[in-house]
Each structure stands twice: as structure tokens, then as C-alpha cells.
Amino acid sequence: MKVGKLDWDDLKYLINNNKTVLREDVRIRSGIGEDCSVVNFGDKECVLSTDPITGADKNSGKLAVNINCNDIASCGIEPVGILVTILAPEHSTLEEINSVMQEIDYETKKLNVEILGGHTEVTRAVNKMVISCTVIGKGEDKSAVATSGAREGDDIIITKNLCLEGTSIIVNDYEKEVANILSEAEIKEAKSYIENISVVKEGLISGKFGVNSMHDITEGGILGAIWEVAKASKKGFKIYKDKMPITEITSKLCSKYDIDPLRLISSGSMLITAENGKSLVEVLEKHNIKACIVGKITDEKGILIDKNCENEVDPPKRDELFVFKEKLS
């Protein structure tokens, strides 16, 4: 099989054929586009999500905390605690493992998230360090926002710039290779993108504002994220390529290596659907969070408009980060 997240058909097969127990106290179940499960506990509900870090060599601890807390925030819920599993190869040192844990500790302090426990092991089963985290959030009953809640006519909003995570990983892990494309100042700026990959702030603001759906933009980029939202919601969409917020640095890298920025991993950007997108953008910008409207939820197919041409969006493919790595291998 190819390296990367399973494609939609394979994932659907695994989910549909291995989910026997359905409990009444589970209000939202994980599935295509639904990264979190929500369990009812009377007047409170618990939100849970889990994800590993495998695509980055540097900043893996920072990424592990943020991508998992971002899932919880995509429900409009504050993350409370995190469980951390580290699988380290035989050649690892205690200092290397401690360095990852220091990153995790630093990021959890910023988000006021407690490290609840986990597991650390040196194993021959991996050839590089693998970090897998599970984050728990707590909210009032029925307060969590589902990915599947998008409604026809909703505005589609994106926060910050796309590809922050993907660009940062490429420049941090392959600095020598990109040095002939980007200036020293651009490399420094691209590395700094990693400091902006949390979407907890906009998730909590949008949850209080009242939105219909949220989804953090991870593997598969914006096209993967909007496809998953539409599929989960049984809707379509129409989005515009020229409205996508992409930095010049990202554009340079994608052009040089012929990779699609709309399919590049984009933690740091939140995809939101809401009835009054303009008002939400204004609220977010008052909190110093850049946001823009890039399209509408429809009741038809998923369409990307590029220079007046309508192109139907396919199910999520392998993330372009893995395509980039193969080109350099």
C-alpha cells in the first residue's frame, strides 16, 4: 500500500465492517469527516480524538499536541487533558525522548491542557519515533459541534493561511534542498509557521458564535477537508481557487515541486460553515484571527471553480507532503 492516510473507500470499508457496538450514550460517532466522538454524561459531554505524528522529523512533539487539540476545538470545545504514547526506535537516546516530552509539556502549558498519562517504549517495530496522542475535552450537554452539521446556503470560511503545517515541515526537514528557492528571510518565516498551527482559539470563538460545522484542515488539505464535511453532511459545495489564502512562500515551494497546495496538510487553518459568514469573519478579526469566505455549501456536487471553469472535486487523495517526500527520495 502507498504511504499516507488510507483513501476514502478503504477507510469506509474498515469502519463499516468493524463497528458492532453502538451505545446510546455516544451522541456523535467518529466516521468519514468526523474526527471526534462525543459521549454523553448527563448534563456534560466528553469529546475525544486521537492522532499520530508520522510525517514530520522536527517539531513532532509540538505537532502532536496541536493537531489533537485542534480536533477537539473543531467541536467548539476546550481540550482538558492529553494521553501520550511514544514509540522510539532502538537507536534513540533518553535525551531525544526527553526533548519530545519537553515540546509536549511546553505546548500543553500554552493551552492549559494536562498530560494525563500514556506509554513510552523503545521498540524494533519502528525505524523513527512515532508519537500518538489522545485528547479529551469537556462541554455542556449537546454543545459540541458536529462536522456533519453543514447546511445548504452556509458560507464556507477559512481561518489564517492554508498549508502552514505542510510548508513548515518541508522547510524544517529539507532546509538544504529549499535554500536555492527561498531566501534566508523566507526560510525563517516559513519555519515560524509552526507557531501558528493551533486553531483552539478560533474553534472556541466560533462555537460560542454559533456555527453549523467545523473541521480542522489536516491531511488532504482544504480539498480533502471540504469533501469530508460535505460527505458527512450529505451536501455539496462550491469553492473558488482564487479566494484561497496561500502565502507567497507556499506558492513558491508548490510551484517548484509541482505539488497542489489545496491538497497539502494545513493544520493551523479551520474550515467553518455558518449561516452568516461575514459576521463570523468580523468577530474572528476582532480577536486578531485572519479569516475569509471561500464559497458556499450547496445541495449538489462538490465544485472547485478555477478561472471560470467548474471542476468536480474527487475524494481525498494522498497528502501532497508524501508526494513531495517521494520526489526527493
UniProtKB/TrEMBL annotation:
Pfam families in the cross-refs: AIRS, AIRS_C
Residue span(s) of domain PurM-like N-terminal: 33-137
Classification via InterPro entries: HypE, PurM-like_C_dom, PurM-like_C_sf, PurM-like_N, PurM-like_N_sf
EC number: 2.7.4.16
GO molecular function: thiamine-phosphate kinase activity
Annotated transmembrane regions: none
Stretches assigned to the PurM-like C-terminal domain: 151-302
Entry-linked CDD domains: PurM-like1 (cd06061)
Record family assignment: Belongs to the HypE family.
Protein name: Thiamine-monophosphate kinase
The organism of origin for this protein: Clostridium tyrobutyricum DIVETGP
